[in-house]
Amino acid sequence: MFVRKLFGALLVAVVLFGVAASGCISGGGTTSSPTQTTKTEVTLNWLSTQLNPPEEQNFVKDQLLPDFTSETGIKVNFVPISYSDMVTRLEGEEKTGKVTIDVIGDLHGGMDYMNSKGWLEDLSNMPKLKNRTFISTFEEYSKINGKKVYVPWMSATYVMVVNKDAFKYLPDGLTKEDVMKGTDKWTYDALLQWAKNLKEATGRPQLGFPAGPKGLFVRFLHGYIYPSYTGYEAKEFDSPDAVKMWNYLKDLWPYVHPSSTTWDAMADSLLKGEVLIAWDHTARIKNAIETKPDQFVVVPVPRGPKGRGFIVVLAGLAIPKGAPHKDEAWKLIDYLTRPETQVKVLEKVGFFPTVKEASGALPEGPLKILAEGVTAQSSTSDALVVMIPNLGSKGGQFKEYYKQAFERIVLNNEDPASVTKEIKPKLIQLFTDAGIQVP
Amino acid sequence: MERSSLVPYLLILPAFLYLMFFVGYPLVQALYLAFVHDGSFSLEVWKRAFSDYYFWSAFKYTLSLAAVIVPTQVALAVVLALMMNRIFKGKDAALYALIIPLTISDVAAGLIWYSMLSPYGFLNKLLLNVGLINNPIYFFGYQYRAREFLAIVLAELWRSTSIVFVIVLAGLQMISRDYLEAAEVFGASYWTKLRKIVLPLLKPSIQSALIIRTLFAMQVFGVVWILAGRDIPVLAGEGYYQLTVIKDTGVASVYALVIAGLSILLGALYIKFLKAEYLEVGR
Fold first, then answer.
1. What is the ipTM of this complex?
2. DSSP tally for chain A: helices H, then strands E
3. What is the pLDDT of residues B238-257, one digit of tens each?
4. Which residues of A touch B152 (CB under 8 A)?
5. Nearest CB to B135: which of A203, A257, A272?
6. Which pTM value belongs to this model?
């Protein structure tokens, strides 16, 4: 009898404990209560999907924000967060009406999505930001259906880096000038020939891609080579042009460094001399160029039959509806988009400015090498600018399909036509589910 | 009398609560995520997981890694323990050196081996400088999955043999010298003593070590992730990938449940087939 009673009591205790503990977890979180007693003690919550790697976080917390705090007296709680976590949190806060987020930093696609849900303030009535001219295309992107959704904050792209030694092995008919400026002759076929020459001359494959589990090689697939060959990111996934592209990649792969499938970023491999040509995100190769500015040049990517596909990444700053400290949030946005702050961001983390005044203020040296490459790429006459599609939480699945196609076709030697036919309906389904046009 | 019967329950209460909250609650959550689709019971998630391109190769690689690593480790640990179970100069130092890998996390171990085996790492530099090779040997990359497998085996052997070793050594030291001395009186050779006395008496320790290592092998992750990325998929790695990159919590739960299922199954098999031995030893 007694044992049964005891078990009853135990059960009650467990349930109570469970309820209390789970309550703590869902109700708690990192934020403290937004109530403040004095006016000066404002702490902004800035959630950002950008600047998340540890080094970049340190830069934000140790160098970027202290200046702002000492200038305005406003403290900032920088919260690096993944896109899906941020959307979940914002959705919860907007639905319950208890908004704790003051500023959001995210890519264009994410802003577009959050705006479509009605979670973002219209910023057109905020005071004018002085002494800066936003780059006009970015300014246009940031206004969606006439509403000023976000302030352009940083931009980035993916480029090719060439170790100057590689120019000794250029194929016939291709000059250094062609590569640096991105002329019509700088094609994917020319890259193949060049990579072949390099391997024959040095005995080792000298072309590298960040195709490891956290590498960004998948962006090369959907944002560079796919549009260059088919004119689209996903629409022509299984077309004859796409099959041609996959066969090209199969031809190219013997000249690509075999460790590529384990590399997440290319700076180290470039510096160690493991590869002479690499493709990666500007922020991820910056370190190589800074360490040996005389050794490397940044060049536009090659072109394919349909043009020169490349991705432009645009990050913006927005204020959620019902943000507790809207005016202070605007001050932070003002600070982050000042030309001098933007130059600092470029210097430290390699994201490019969104205001014209900053681009002019660039010092000579490694950054200029990067900026010149980026500018050369975006000003090529056959440019096919691609934006990363915003599929919300399905973004990972989107990338997975391209990676899978790559692994099966190029690494496992399966038939490109049948693999792409098999994957395409699943890929298109992602866009249908999200209600977005297939790019 | 009532008070004394209450005491055992009170004593296990904290552990019970701890397990309920940190094991029971997530387990229920995982079951929910894996079996419930659109609010009702469904095997949809399992179908999705089983049709995943990586699922079966992850399953295969996890089991084959365990099949290679665990027996090698146990054999190695027994040999090492036998060597260490005697008095010699520098024994303490040797013991410390053998146990150091125990203190290193799997990710750190993976990084150590990666930097040793990478194309410009220690091993390749050594071979290049000695003139044995002209070009670095590649250990990593999709084309070299067999070598990646080897690198993982090496790293795992280096990292986690010591736990087996410690258990076996403790078992060895518990064997009473009386048996061995008695055997010597009858003129038994080293091999006879080893076969007839030491190994049989060591069985319980070997069995516990085997169970621990096999169960851990089902969760192998850090070393594989660092050395081979997804070139060699494993169950825990795929679960992590599904959760953090693909954001498919359902499929991630399926991976977790498969690991749990495998562990329970293997644990049960060990206990079923090895239990009799325990009784015999205890007799």
1. 0.81
2. 19, 11
3. 999 999 888 889 999 999 99
4. none
5. A203
6. 0.80
